[in-house]
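Quick one: co-fold with NAP.
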Amino acid sequence: MIMKKYAPTARVHIETYKSEYRSDFIRLNREWIETFFRIEDSDIETFSHVDKIVEQGGQIFLAVTDHGEVAGCCALKHHSENESYELAQMAVSPLYQGHHIGHQLGMAVMEYARRHGIRRIYLEGNTRLKASIALFRSLGFREIPLQNNAYERCDILMCWEDEQQNRTDNKHSAIVMGGTSGIGYEVALILAKRGWRVGVAGRREDILKKMMAETDGIVAYEVIDVNKPQAVDGLHTLIGKMGGMDLYFHSSGIGYQNVALDADKELSTIETNCLGMARLVGEAFRYLEQHPETDGQIAVISSIARTKGLGAAPAYSASKRFTSHYLECLCQLTSIRNIRNIHITDIRPGFVRTPLLQGSPFPMQLDARRVAESIVDGLEKRKPVITINWLYHLLVFFWQMIPRAIWIRMKIR
Ligand SMILES: NC(=O)c1ccc[n+]([C@@H]2O[C@H](COP(=O)([O-])OP(=O)(O)OC[C@H]3O[C@@H](n4cnc5c(N)ncnc54)[C@H](OP(=O)(O)O)[C@@H]3O)[C@@H](O)[C@H]2O)c1
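Sure, here it is.
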């Protein structure tokens, strides 16, 4: 019969490193690594130079019982080559497991990070160790794409960010729907560069993950298909991850030249650009309405195609009229309901070189990065309408003057 050994006491306090704890640190780590994996070169390197962890700007935390026994440990390593911090070598003696010692160690690391202005901590883990992954998630670590792992046994990379500090820094939070490509992608990068905390959404998770891993300031993502009813839950999840939302930026959209009037193209355009847009923009509006403490903004890309009906792209052109009209309605609604904390912006670009226009013969295509710069400038000034650029501004001015009887005879393609 196997007798389970119980800890004489599970009461621990957390101490920082002293060299007398070196052998405990090595013992606890050897114990769990040899149970589940094998000792690697990186482990031997760490065990041979434990004191270096502290000397190089990191720290080691020990969970010590009332009897002076070391029940658990973990290290916060500083990597000066890329100014990053890593949570590593977390180990709890099997004798003391089930007493939340890992959680206490983790909390001590977060507390230490906050006191020392450390905003981001990485860790490499293994998904076989389900309890430890659950622990890290409960501490606020989330999965990011794995890259250059230092240990063979690791198959997951996780990252923690000090959201509390970010909030007290008064950084504004923006959500970019349709951030995986084209104008939305560029706007997300520019907002992040200008100090916003950005959450991105779209259907392509690989791109969203990569954006978050590669861009400081892009702090969260959520896979959202605006055409699915559960997209509104996705939006709330993303807002939760961000700890709030000051700006909702809607760039999700599709479009076709459809002279053949293919039904699928027409209907899917209406579904995404009208229904999907109204679903998400409406939810963003309701969220901000319920958060009057937030001075919020909703910005949506319509297009200069909203100006007049374009025969070569009926659904697209009409969907942009719908979008623009919808935004005007929401503006008026804020007046009717005396809502003072929601500002609406209608963004109307001319032709922009993005995947949407790939292979199309349209003239005067604008550079997506420059268009995004103008959009963010306009957003930061809280402009109600942003038309890009001045040439298109002039063009739509003249379009509007053309009488209907003449317009419908024009062969614009
Ligand atoms: N390019 C132009 O000339 C131009 C001019 C005026 C206005 N606009 C408007 O600007 C917006 C962005 O267009 P773009 O040129 O940047 O095109 P794009 O590069 O094709 O980007 C479109 C974005 O919409 C997202 N999207 C499409 N369907 C979606 C869905 N069902 N759910 C969630 N996201 C969806 C895509 O993400 P996923 O594929 O990852 O879902 C992608 O991020 C569109 O509304 C477009 O009509 C474009």
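If it helps, The chain has two domains: 12-166, 171-407.
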